Amino acid sequence: MNSSYVSTSTTTSALSSSSPLYLLPFDFLETILVNTIFNGIGYESWRKGMKLGLSCKNKLGLINGSVPKPQPTSPLFEPWNRCNDMVVAWILNSLDKEITETVMYTEFAEKFWKDIEQRFVQVSGLKIFQIRKDISSITQDNSNIASYFNRIKRLWNELCFSISYPECECGCKEAFQKLDEEQREHQFLSGLNDSYSTIRRNILLMKPLPDVDNVFHAHK
Questions:
Q1: Domain annotation covers residue 1
Q2: Do 60 and 93 sit in the same domain of this protein?
Q3: DSSP per residue, 22-82
């Protein structure tokens, strides 16, 4: 048996496969959950990738505190320790060596995750500010409509990877996303050359506004 396989038949047989403390036969310490190793740049995109990977593994509870450490007398104590160690290993696998050396002695996945958040969230805020500034200044100028759309859409995508919406069941996330979509439409239209002023006016009079991809195709 592979030495990096930390689950045991006794542990897994006592847990439901839907439990966050259940380890699959192919859960290994060497598993890498993201495509790009985080080196201090692109924190939000790395964060989203890690959370997606951990969600697919049903292990988000180990980093957000919803699966707290059981008492030593609990039958879940050992399974929790195994899953905690596994999640810590997965996070370490996704970090650049220089960053790893500064955090590798943190024992608990939840604290590990919070330490990384505190360290890099301010850098992310500066990046978001710069992206928004770039978007506000971009215009069509001498480029064709397709080139202009590609430039501004690249910035939108970068911004999307750099921000997080609140997770709730009250509809706030959807409302924020709708407002962002309307803002993108206005940003795209405002950067167009004056030769598109008539089409721009007609689109702005539409209720509701079409999505930004349809706005682009209307100008092609």
A1: no
A2: yes
A3: ---TT--TT---SSS-BSSS-HHHHHHHHHHHHHHTT-THHHHSSSPPPPTTSTTHHHHHH
Closest CA to 55 of 81, 30, 34, 29: 34
What is the Cα–Cα distance from 163 to 51, expressed in whole angstroms? 14
Tens-place pLDDT, residues 161-200: 777 666 666 767 777 778 888 888 889 989 999 988 888 8
Q: Is 196 exposed, middle or buried (0-12, 13-18, 19+ CB in 10 A)?
A: middle
The sign one gets for the Cα dihedral 185, 187, 190, 192 is negative
Question: Range of 43's domain?
Answer: 9-117
- List pLDDT tens digits, range 69-127: 999 999 999 999 999 999 999 999 999 988 888 887 888 999 999 999 888 876 667 77
End position of a domain, from candidates 82, 117, 152:
117
Amino acid in the structure at residue 38: F
Write down the H helix ranges in 138-219: 145-162, 172-190, 197-204, 212-219
